[in-house]
Amino acid sequence: xxxxxxxxFVAEYHERGYFLVPNLLNMDEVQRFRTVIDxxxxxxxxxxxxxxxxxxxxxxxxxxxxxxxxxxxxRVDPVFRDFMAHPKLQAVxxxxxxxxxxxxxxxxxxxxxxxxxxxxxxxxxxxxxxCNDSVLAVGLMIDDVTTENGPTLVIPGSHRPRRVLDHHxxxxxxxxxxxxxxxxxxxxxxxxxxxxxSIFVFDAFMVHGAASNQSKNIRRTCFxxxxxSDAWPIHQINDPGVVASDGPLESRGIAGRAIVKPRVxxxxxxxxxxxxxxxxxxxxxxxxxxxxxxFS
Length: 296
Ligand SMILES: O=C(O)CCC(=O)C(=O)O
Hints:
Elements: H1 8-16, E1 18-21, H2 27-43, E2 54-56, E3 67-71, H3 78-82, H4 87-97, E4 101-111, E5 119-123, E6 135-141, E7 152-154, E8 168-169, E9 172-173, E10 190-192, E11 199-203, E12 207-210, E13 219-228, H5 241-246, E14 253-255, H6 283-286
Antiparallel strand pairs: 1-11, 2-3, 3-4, 4-13, 4-14, 5-12, 6-11, 6-13, 7-10, 7-12, 8-9
The structure holds 2-oxoglutaric acid.
């Protein structure tokens, strides 16, 4: 706690745009996730194309299953949903977002050994602008995250000033910024590493990405996006799936009250309109057509 009675991570969040809470979950809790995820990976053997649940690496096969992502895992197994009610997580979230909180989306990025896909630099805000900026993401480390197994990389301080960089290419949403525009100093990138069970929390305006997994160890990180209950989406790139399966937005509260009156503030927005010929599948698919890449 600092002098004003606020946990220190709140100041860190506002200054740098992110912070780490090591070992929020104990190893028994982590193991519950791992068991469920191992079962899902087994299930993916019979899949040959992306589905509503599985996003596949290009070299995925039945013999050697390799996933990039498990989409909306909280709809697949309660372990992912139950985490949102974890008292330690709730304490962190309410310190930043206040007492009334809703979840926006959940995704489990599974970076398999020997080449699990990179993600180009982007701001989450570009994907789901809201009517105010009380929007953040929590990464829950299911495995130890090291500098070798494809950690999330952040650019500290890039969450301010509030601006949304151009994530479009040729007029369509491409899910990443163009590194050749030199708007960001990538030499400032910091890998977010930590033991399994840790969480890191980052602002939706933070520029971040992730290199590919060049190690022999899997890196599974589950990303939860949370918003203050009075922050309502201006656009949801993965709509209507989210609304249809999770029920109406006002029923997705994880703490406090559902607030159906949006708090509207001046926020920068560029509408993330996807390609007309391909429904939005995942960030990996959106980034497929990029001409200029940083990581590969
Ligand atoms: O997998 C990572 O480390 C980064 C995830 C991310 O930025 C995303 O899924 O939007």
